[in-house]
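Q: Convert this sequence to structure tokens.
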Amino acid sequence: MVRALGAGPLIVPVFCLLLVSGLAPSSPAQTDMFGCGPEKQKFNITIHKGQHPMPEPPPGKAVVYVFRAKKYPDSARRFSLRTLLSVNGKWVGVNRFQTYFYFEADPGLLRLCSKLEKRPPVFMNLTVEAGKSYYIRQWVVFFDHEITQVPEQEARRLLAKCDYAAFKGKP
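A:
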């Protein structure tokens, strides 16, 4: 029997099962929370006040809108902390209070990782189809956060109150 030092008899079989299933990290890049982007990457975010681009999905792609709108009517601007979003290990956008961004995606499973500054990340899987739009809401609640998928009608109403946030990552 192969045994890791100090490990019980189930450690090696369980790790092998995780490795075969694709859940165990197989490289240092994947160990960053199984899907979040690089920890030390720098970003530029430009808020375009009053602009609301809402493009239709291009042929063969889906469009995913990610926004931060008030959760409660009395939410304060003090929640202007950055919330980052990565897809399959690559940062695609940053939101602040009452902002949104969008990105195009190939059809299939997207592994979303939302990170609020120095808080632990939250994760969500989203399966997208070509020609469709999807709406993801990042909520900041008492210096914690969550992400959820929102129906189109509700999302469009909330997006109308948000400003567009253009994202550019730096190496």
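The first strand starts at residue 42 and ends at 48.
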